[in-house]
Structure formats: structure tokens, C-alpha cells
Amino acid sequence: MYGDNVVIDADGKKLIIEHLYTVEDYFTFNIKVQSGEFIGASHFCISKENILSIVEVLSKMYETLSGCCEINDNDSDAHINLEMDKLGHIHMTGQIGGSHEEHSMKFKYSTDQTALSALIQNLKSSL
Q1: 43-55: per-residue pLDDT in tens?
Q2: How many angstroms separate the CA atoms of 58 and 120, rounded?
Q3: Mind telling me which InterPro entries this protein's record contains (predicted)?
């Protein structure tokens, strides 16, 4: 159903990033996260400049198998953090939905470096 928008889908962990629309140089994405039995979704607004920076950092992480990257929503405190350990595992933490909203969800899980490639391609395709 989500096709190329699926970044992670394994072992009760899911990350889906769908580009909704662009206004000037600001891109709005619908980001859905599943962590075990918990599921949350939120719109993230990210500037083109930040997307280009995120793609650059993620690409370096993919090449070097080290580093970290933070993806922040311009309109709230929603965020996704990715940190790679020495073995190429990515530890992902974040919050879907802003603290000021009626509902928000914090999540934490690990995946492997193959998720970086899917995330990079997803973000590039929105530009």
C-alpha cells in the first residue's frame, strides 16, 4: 500500500515517510511509526535546506557506518534521531506528534544500516 514510502518494516518496527505537499521550499511529510503494539503518525514540515543537509549526513553515515542524524519538525518538537553503533546497527529514537498536541508518541528501536538507503532515497525523491 505504501510502496516506496516504507523505510523500515520488520519485527514490529515500521517507519513510513510519505511526502504530502510542498509550499515554497518547505516540504510536509506524513510520518508513521510503529513500535511493537504502539502506532503513531504526525506531519513533519522540513525545509529544503534541512532535507539536503539530512541527506548529506545520512549518506556519510551509510558510507562510514558511523555517525548520527536528527530530523526535526519545523512546527513542533517532534523529531527522529538516528545513531549508528560500531556494528552498523542504527538506534532510532524520537517523538511523533508535538508535546503540545493532544496525542504524541515516543519510540525507541534498533534496525540495521539498510534502512539508511531507503530513507535517503525517500527524501531525495521528494526534492
Answers
A1: 999 999 999 999 9
A2: 7
A3: WapI (IPR056510)
